Amino acid sequence: MDYKKSVVYEIYPKSFCDTKGTGVGDLKGITSKLDYLQNLGVDYLWLCPFFVSPQVDNGYDVEDYYSIDPRYGTMEDFEELARKAEKRGIGLMLDMVFNHTSDRHIWFRKALKGDPYYKNFYIFKKGKEGGGAPTNWQSRFGGSAWEYVPEFDEYYLHLYAMQQPDLNWENPDVRAEVEKVVRFWMEKGVKGFRFDVINQVSKKAYEDDPDGDGTPMFTDGPRIHEFLKELNEQSFGRDPEIITVGEMAATKMESCFRYANPEEHELTMVFSFHHMRADFAGDQKWVLAPVDFMGFKKIMFSWQTKMAEHGSWNALFLDNHDQPRIVSRFGSEDEYWKESAKMLGTLYQLLRGTPFIYQGEELGMTNGDFKELSDYRDVESINNFHILTEKGLSPSDALRILQKHSRDNARTPMQWSSEKHAGFSQGEPWMKVNPNYERINAQAELLDEDSVFHYYRQLIQLRKQYEVVSDGDVRPLGLEDERVFAFERSLGEESLVVICNFYGRDYTWKGELDLSQYQILLSNYPEHEILDNAVWLKPFEAVVLYRKGEQDE
Ligand code: TEU
């Protein structure tokens, strides 16, 4: 399958569909929704981890890479899913978490017993002379990234939760194990892989970071390209059909030029996150800040144009399981909910790269309705609540920040219908269902031709039908415009123009192209006012215009 023409759909198994009434989604639930997914038109399903795990980080803490967590089903269930998906032309993409394991993984348990072979699978270091952790690095989930083990008088490194010890990629035996895991799943018929925080596996030096939390010491490290090339050569690279995406936390674009350039033989494409900080205060996530639209636009276009100049490929997304819902963040939850959900889809799906839709995004699902700390499940959110209140913030102010920025916003159960628990489960869901399910749900949207769901179907089809979408060059339009996100895609004489009003107010947009030669391919409003190079945009309006090559001269 051509990755440029493909669209990936991300599934968070825990919240997708529960067939057993346990309140937790399962693999059979995914199989039962294959018709829905085929109808939407997606080509790959990225399944977040379903391996045996104590679930401290919802499966991103893997205890056994070769077995399926019984709460999600069995290996037979997985094989059935793979088979039935393939029949519908859908490939499975698995999520491989190799920066760390669970602390319950047999390797770590042996390490803690003092087995020197397995101790070298992880990163144990002596504390500083005079006491304290080996370096000042901070865990991504808050607090020190080092945990003290009294038996050894040493610390182990965990860039994420304490129960997620980092693997030592300098050890060739670790890399060989990782490659073995990938080959195992390839043999099961898997068609792609997503590698979790893969750009953090090569650490630079175990030294203090003078002005920060350690990020430069373990991001895009000195041996990262070598490690990725080896992983490619020893595992997925043996099958040219397999597509891969690396999750690149806090990465530098220069590194991504190489990660995602086909000639480098590292990965097919990369996720970067700089554009997702548009509502942070600088690097600070746990504060309330307005959306910086101009900053967002600048970052998006700089990745678009520079990655293209280097022949490298982007993964495109606005929603995923770690991000609050985009319609709540950048759009509107009330008056213009539908229009803004469609506009945001238009904005990113027609850029240069492979789009990733996160479950429920195609319905315009919104942030969770969380009122108290006990409504939250996410380790990062709960840790940061405590950090904020220890710093002196009132619990209600801390909760307000969580309501905006918690990853749980994306993890509420999928809204299938207006039945009890949104049709997600017969039992009590592991996380609170969003009460707006009576209005926003798949059943209702399937019946409504004007729904966000049907609009997403059309967007996906544009990528299949128009080569200019999959292969065209990209050029920002009106970079300085403070209201509109617009760009042109072009292939030879063929041209596609996408104009998105980012705000809930009317706005007249003027560009440099004569639009009278264009036809409208898609829009979230039935009527349009376009004259020469000007478009009278309604709140959150998105218009996709197309001009064929021949008509040009
Ligand atoms: O996320 C890595 C990551 O750094 C972020 O997306 C993170 O969730 C966010 O920055 C916190 O502010 C990946 C997975 O996608 C995430 O679900 C896991 O929790 C994490 O790795 C650890 O495996």
What does this protein structure show overall?
With 553 residues, the chain is α/β, with parallel strands linked by helices. It is built from 17 helices and 21 strands. It has helices spanning 27-32, 34-40, 75-87, 106-112, 116-119, 172-187, 215-218, 224-234, 253-259, 293-309, 326-329, 337-349, 379-390, 395-405, 442-447, 452-465, 467-471, and strands spanning 8-11, 44-47, 51-52, 64-68, 91-96, 124-125, 146-149, 154-157, 192-195, 243-247, 269-271, 315-316, 354-358, 473-477, 484-491, 494-501, 507-510, 519-523, 530-531, 534-537, 542-547. The protein has an eight-stranded parallel beta sheet with strand order 11-10-9-5-2-1-13-12. Strands 14-15-16-21-18 form a five-stranded antiparallel beta sheet. A hairpin with a 6-residue loop joins strand 14 (473-477) and strand 15. Helix 12 (337-349) runs parallel beside helix 16 and helix 13 runs antiparallel to helix 14. The longest helix is centred in the middle third of the chain and has 17 residues, at 293-309. The radius of gyration is 23 Å and the shape is globular. The two termini are 35 Å apart. The mean pLDDT is 97. Bound molecules: 1-O-alpha-D-glucopyranosyl-D-fructose. 1-O-alpha-D-glucopyranosyl-D-fructose binds next to loops. It comes from Candidatus Enterocloster faecavium. InterPro entries: GH, GH13_cat_dom, Glyco_hydro_b, O16G_dom_2, SusG-like_C. Belongs to the glycosyl hydrolase 13 family. It holds the Pfam family SusG_C.
